């Protein structure tokens, strides 16, 4: 684990934020209602995880850089982010409907929530930063938990 400024972390955050900004400007009908029922505990974990993951993604650099086998962790993380972008493309092309946000991508449940969390865990491994991995796990508990709750609520309608 080495402190520094991670251009790779910035790139991952940009990949994460761009579709979220587009989504935030035009949230699907029904999202405001479904978000009212979120667990406060999960929401707190999500917020803590968001801040911590953002900070650790930028503040740590990989001591091994782009050397094998460490590079494989970065490649795997990048592949997950590509799948994440594909999930967003599917969502927007599908009419940006509420249920489209929660549709699985193959065997991956709630991919818009799951994929970036998994990618940031792998990025933390590449950075060799337990703090980055822990931050992403905290984010995942909150973020994925919230999205699974939304999915259950939609199924009950």
Envelope shape = globular
Give me the strand/helix succession: EHHHEHHH
Strands across the major sheet, in which order?
Answer: 1-2
Helix percentage: over 70%
Q: Name the poorly predicted regions.
A: none
Task: Provide a count of the helices.
Answer: 6
Average pLDDT works out at 95
User: Which class do the helix and strand fractions yield?
Assistant: mainly alpha
In short:
The protein has 157 residues and is mainly α. Helices cover 71% and strands 3% of the residues.
Overall description:
- This protein has helices at residues 7-25, 31-35, 40-59, 70-93, 111-126, 130-156; strands at residues 2-3, 60-61.
- It is mostly helical and 157 residues long.
- Strands 1-2 form a two-stranded antiparallel sheet.
- The longest helix has 27 residues, at 130-156.
Write the layout of secondary structure elements.
Blueprint: E1 2-3, H1 7-25, H2 31-35, H3 40-59, E2 60-61, H4 70-93, H5 111-126, H6 130-156
Antiparallel strand pairs: 1-2
Helix pairs in contact: 1-3, 1-4, 3-6, 4-5, 5-6
């Amino acid at each position: 684990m080495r402190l520094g400024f991670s251009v790779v972390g910035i790139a991952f955050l940009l990949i994460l934020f761009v579709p979220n900004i587009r989504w935030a400007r035009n949230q699907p009908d029904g999202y405001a209602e479904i978000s009212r029922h979120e667990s406060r505990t999960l929401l707190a974990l999500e917020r803590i995880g968001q801040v911590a993951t953002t900070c650790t993604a930028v503040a740590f650099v990989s001591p091994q850089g782009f050397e094998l086998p460490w590079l494989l962790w970065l490649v795997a993380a990048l592949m997950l982010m590509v799948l994440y972008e594909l999930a967003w493309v599917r969502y927007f092309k599908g009419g940006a409907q509420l249920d489209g946000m929660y549709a699985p991508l193959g065997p991956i449940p709630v991919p818009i929530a799951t994929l970036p969390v998994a990618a940031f865990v792998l990025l933390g491994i590449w950075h060799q930063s337990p703090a980055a991995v822990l931050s992403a796990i905290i984010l995942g508990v909150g973020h994925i938990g919230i999205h699974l709750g939304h999915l259950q609520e939609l199924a009950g309608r």
